[in-house]
Design goal:
FAD/NAD-bd_sf, Helicase, Ruva Protein, domain 3, 8-stranded mixed sheet, DAO_C_sf, about 600 residues, oxidoreductase, alpha+beta, 6-stranded antiparallel sheet
Length: about 600
């Protein structure tokens, strides 16, 4: 099923006239994952998103599918065990998206440091065992300070003890969402973006049986009916619950995470780097190379502003510039070096006190000597096959912190998830991390199987969601490089240069052939390459790109990582999309203005 503005009217008619088994509200990664698994299980499923798919949190992460070694800062083995396992699963079901990229973790002689050279090796060894990469090419190792500086000459050398190197994965968060959405639609789900839920409907017994929805593009309201309604709206979970007079559920405490992008010529790092801030606040931040740029973040502060349009503030920039210049003192990065930025809201559960990866103050998350020594003893016994993995997990779970705070800082709020059923039957799946989305959806499906069996006598198809590949990911995940080469050759056969052909293969995976098939219908648009032109046509016709920002920000990375290349192409993109969409002169001007505003905001012109 193609997702486009042309197919939207029939989609809306289906929403109005059909009764669905499951209606999912929220088209971020959580909702997209649920919609895919539910459809594959045989449920007649609808998915509604009030903005573009992934427009909120799910396109504004650190863009890693990480195993969570950072959670070993407080030895949260449950989180680490889950995330390293799920990282491998996500790579298997979306093999064209997450890619392995070892992470460098520099260690400094500083009282506020998360790890020292001894504890980081213990943590990495435990991490590798949980991840199942011990003895492989991705096994961790430590390097000396001299070697760390050879790798990253710009690193601060003062008090540098060395570094750890361990496996992590880079990710394209927004594309992971759209590929889940496309696969769900291909299987028969009815999916619609820019449809806002403005009310919850109930039957005569007070049970939630649908929603009152508004077509954001026209303002018209209509009803959508379903046996079960599920709230997967991320930061908006509590806000949606507030419009249901008969429901209550978890309270979300959103925190804001900011990332800044600079050109690699200003600061080049050979591999993703995860470092203490060095400012005595017990916090850590990422520095990641990507597509000729370097981005760094993140912040973690409470947020109570406009959820739909969170903004980077001066304080966010000041903090991150201070952190980056502290760890890379020769770089001298200033606000004028920032080419792009993004800010997202984390849907953290306010009533869960587990520590988050950033910790709080300098002492938060520090483990008592007795607990730490016991952990090392058990870990060593595990290495000698004298203790089980369960023994290690118990030792870690029972760790006692040397200090605790009754009032949690934003960085201490749990990244855990919650699955709740309100009195009226409204199901809410909240919290979590992008790495956990498949597992969260699988947990929701267990509940749905029970609900449909008990209340409707329906037996759902059993699926293995660990092998349910998303759109673009239908190939052997153990043979990614060769497969990408194959799809690169397909694109090159259409006359696309090698570098652009590889970019298409990496972006679209097994859909690459479908993308380049548009070359049989269209030629390179004036001012655009053939690859740009084909990508735009495919995205508009089959990926629900309704605006230039949809395409240039979330379907591709132009605005974030290629704004310098985009500058001379903006008018060409406007002209070609106007032709595809049939925009009037007025609509075309409005679209161009919206694109310019987005670029200006992303570039932080309002702060410069």
């Amino acid at each position: 099923m193609s997702l486009s503005l042309k197919t939207r009217p029939s989609t809306l008619e289906n929403l109005k006239n059909e009764e669905y088994d499951l209606l999912v509200i929220g088209g971020g990664i959580t909702g997209a994952g649920v919609a895919l698994q539910a459809t594959a299980s045989g449920l007649k499923t609808a998915l509604l998103e009030m903005q573009d798919f992934a427009e909120g949190t799910s396109s504004r992460s650190t863009k890693l599918v990480h195993g969570g070694i950072r959670y070993l800062k407080t030895f949260d083995v449950g989180v680490v065990a889950d995330t390293v396992t799920e990282r491998a699963v996500v790579q298997g079901i979306a093999p064209h998206i997450p890619r392995p990229f070892p992470m460098l973790l520099p260690i400094y002689d500083d009282p506020s440091s998360t790890f020292d050279m001894f504890s980081v090796k213990i943590a990495m060894d435990l991490y590798d065992r949980l991840a199942g990469v011990t003895g492989t090419q991705y096994a961790n190792y430590t390097i000396s300070a001299q070697e760390a500086l050879q790798r990253e000459p710009n690193l601060k050398s003062e008090k540098l003890l060395g570094a750890g190197v361990y496996l992590d994965f880079v990710n394209n968060d927004a594309r992971l969402v759209i590929e889940n959405v496309k696969e769900a639609a291909e299987m028969g789900a009815t999916v619609a973006s820019r449809v806002k839920v403005v009310g919850i409907l109930h039957d005569e017994n007070g049970k939630a049986n649908g929603v009152k929805a508004q077509d954001v593009l026209t303002g018209k309201e209509f009803e959508v009916h379903a046996k079960v309604v599920m709230n997967t709206t991320g930061p908006w979970v509590s806000k949606l619950l507030n419009i249901d007079s008969k429901a209550e559920g978890p309270t979300i405490r959103p925190t804001k995470g900011v990332h800044l992008v600079i050109d690699a010529s200003r600061l080049s790092v050979p591999q993703p780097t995860y470092s203490d801030s060095g400012m005595g606040d017990g916090r850590m931040f990422f520095v990641v190379p990507r597509e000729g740029k370097t981005y760094f973040g993140t912040t973690d502060t409470d947020f109570d502003g406009d959820y739909a349009h969170p903004r980077v503030e001066q304080a966010d920039v000041d903090y991150l510039l201070k952190a980056i210049n502290n760890r890379f003192p020769g770089a001298d990065i200033t606000i004028n070096d920032i080419e792009a930025s993004w800010v997202g809201l984390r849907p953290l559960l306010s009533d869960n006190g587990s520590s988050d990866y950033n910790g709080g103050g300098a002492n938060v998350g520090k483990v008592s000597d007795e607990s730490f020594n016991n952990l090392i003893k058990i870990a060593n016994e595990y290495s000698d096959d004298k203790a089980s993995r369960s023994d290690v997990e118990k030792a870690i779970s029972s760790l006692e912190t040397a200090s605790a705070e009754k009032t949690l800082s934003p960085s201490q709020v749990s990244r855990g998830s919650s699955l709740d059923v309100a009195a009226d039957g409204l199901v809410t799946l909240s919290g979590g991390k992008i790495t956990d989305y498949r597992k969260m959806a699988a947990g929701a499906m267990d509940l749905l199987r029970q609900i449909f069996a008990e209340q409707y006598g329906m037996e759902l198809t059993e699926i293995d969601s660990k092998t349910l590949q998303v759109s673009g990911g239908h190939f052997d995940p153990t043979n990614v490089d060769a497969t990408m080469k194959f799809y690169q050759n397909i694109a090159m056969s259409k006359g696309i240069p090698a570098a652009e052909a590889l970019d298409l293969a990496n972006r679209y995976g097994s859909n690459t052939g479908r993308v380049v098939s548009y070359a049989d219908q269209v030629e390179a648009a004036p001012g655009l390459s053939l690859a740009d032109t084909l990508s735009l046509h495919y995205s508009v016709n089959e990926e629900a790109s309704y605006t230039l920002v949809d395409f240039l920000l979330r379907r591709t990375n132009y605005i974030l990582f290629h704004e310098d290349e985009l500058a001379p192409k903006k008018d060409a993109f406007v002209n070609e999309m106007a032709k595809i969409m049939g925009w009037s002169a007025q609509e075309k001007a409005a679209q161009k203005d919206a694109l310019e505003r987005e670029i200006s905001n992303t570039r932080l012109d309002y702060l410069k």
